[in-house]
């Protein structure tokens, strides 16, 4: 009898091992968000970085879809409404952060995927090369009618509705935090310490025991920061949710395309170490007005853009909506655009990413991968 039981268990284990990873339940979810990282930007970034098309790791991910990015009140979304759709499964008006407009003129908070994770005891992290209060990171934990309300976003960051709040926070906005918390008569160091964080400006704070918050006003090395965040979050046997945003706006094309290549390197590295129980999802909140207009094969694209173009890009950045048409390789209209963006995925639940879908469906993909039910 005992032998028979062991045989049954062994057979069940063998059967489970035969189940495709995409059909198994995820323990962790990592969402990589390329802010303004539309198809034209990814295409140009791969050629700029590797001198050949379809050379990004993102472009090799096994499950791919095209995601609509329109908001509740506009065909062209901003980051607030775009990220709200992904994090809550609901479209909202431009400028609103994880909240819906209500008939009485107020707003209704929308529960975010990060809050689902916090409620269930998972560890959570938010890493961005933008201000930590900006629309994309804020949409993971805050609920405000205006993305400009940085004071309220900072307060909600430290007063979570579910769980104990985000476990690892890395981003810019140190000076903004000083100004916001000063209105409450405290420093950021005092406010974060009271909320249970180890707080500072160095990403070396991350990776140890206890919650950590790193705010700075300068760029930081992305891969070491994300690896340290994973080391810390993965200690939780219940699993984790991590959102990593990297700015890919190409009002400065060289900078934006470099950031796109940086995020791609990040995804390549994290995909190698995250484990087979992790759903990895890349998408963009919206696209941007960059187009490749020319360029010769077998010559680095960066060398084909004439030096005076840098000044033209700088001038265009001061005048949103300006098109730089004289560049023989890349032209940029400094504005968000409304076409679909790529969603690419690997790991448990990734098979749900296919075809044409709404950005709100990506929330359902993450929820289903964890085996959770959506709450009304």
UniProtKB/TrEMBL annotation:
It is an enzyme of class 3 (hydrolase). It comes from the Bacteria. Keywords: Hydrolase, Magnesium, Metal-binding, Phosphoprotein, Signal, Zinc. Binds 2 Zn(2+) ions. Its EC number is 3.1.3.1. One of its GO terms (molecular function) is metal ion binding. Pfam families: Alk_phosphatase. Coiled coil: none annotated. The keyword ATP-binding does not apply. Its cofactor is Zn(2+); Mg(2+). SUPFAM superfamilies: Alkaline phosphatase-like (SSF53649). The active site is at residue 79. Residues 1-23 form the signal peptide. InterPro entries: Alkaline_phosphatase, Alkaline_phosphatase_core_sf. Zn(2+) binds at residues 35, 249, 285-286, 336. Mg(2+) binds at residues 35, 134, 136, 245. Belongs to the alkaline phosphatase family. This is Alkaline phosphatase.
